[in-house]
Amino acid sequence: MNNTKSVKQVKSAIRTMSLFQVFAEHQRPLTLGELAHYMQAPKSSCYELIHTLAGLGYITLIDGGKSYYPSRRLSEMVDQINLFNPIKERVQFCLKKLRDETGETVFVGRIQGLQAVYSEVFEGTHSIRYTANSGDVKPLHASALGRALLANIPENEQSKLLSEIKLTRFTDQTITRKKQLKEQLDQEKYAGVSITFGDSSGDIAGIAAPLLLNAHMLAVGIAGPNSRVEANVDRYRKNILRTIGQILNY
Q: What is the secondary structure of 69-87 as a DSSP string?
């Protein structure tokens, strides 16, 4: 027997979240008529909802109430909630563990425009190590992070990026032909990891693998001196893949 009970949906909660979603999509002050149109709701219901939220300090009335926009109070509340983000905590815990296991600098990153960017970096424990900071950008075609991301995004997004990025040569190892890059990306997607040895910096190697988390394509990896990464490439690869599994099953 199935004892699962369906939960009754609260219409006012649905309408409130729909309101904020409309603001997020349009990113500008909206009139009552526009809100009613986008929310597909009666003007009277939207009016009551907006002025209730305004009374609580979450909506700002602009031009004497001709249009509306979420207030700073809402943003500040979201920031307070995000001070403890269980997903972020989980990722950080697993990445620090990977750093401790390998001694190498560990990172997680994403695509930003035509580059890859480090979202989090945990510096290695070796005296000679790769150094980077959160917010640093890397080339999509010449870094393990960039290629792990590029290889695993949807085909249409990949094609668009490949048509737009410039394949700058950094070293003799840099791939500078798009046909060759596409072949390399296909191989790395099949292998599950992307590995670079001196592609963007002559003495730095990287290993990265994709992490699809909450519908966001990220990549997790390590970077360090060529010689040390080459000597441990199989172990590092396994450590990264195990870490990703731990994040997804935490």
A: EE-HHHHHHHHHHHTS-HH
The tens-digit pLDDT sequence of the chain (250 residues) is 444 456 678 888 999 999 999 999 999 999 999 999 999 999 999 999 999 999 999 999 998 889 999 998 888 888 777 765 667 888 999 999 999 999 999 999 999 999 999 999 999 999 999 999 999 999 999 999 999 999 999 999 999 999 999 999 999 999 999 999 999 999 999 999 999 999 998 899 999 999 998 888 999 999 999 999 999 999 999 999 999 999 998 7
Dihedral Cα 118, 123, 124, 129, nearest 10 deg: 80
Distance of CA 47 to the CA centre of its chain: 36
pTM of structure:
0.69
Residues in the chain: 250
Tokens of 1: 């027997």
Q: Is 33 exposed, middle or buried (0-12, 13-18, 19+ CB in 10 A)?
A: exposed
Q: Within 10 Å of residue 247's Cβ, how many Cβ atoms?
A: 21
User: H or E stretch including 172?
Assistant: none
Spatial separation of the C-alpha atoms in residues 78 and 88, rounded to whole Å: 15
Amino acid (one-letter) located at 240: I
Cα–Cα distances in angstroms (integers) from residue 208 to residues 69, 71, 114, 196, 218, in the given order: 41, 40, 18, 9, 10
Which stretches of 57-194 are DSSP H helices? 72-82, 86-102, 144-152, 155-164, 178-191
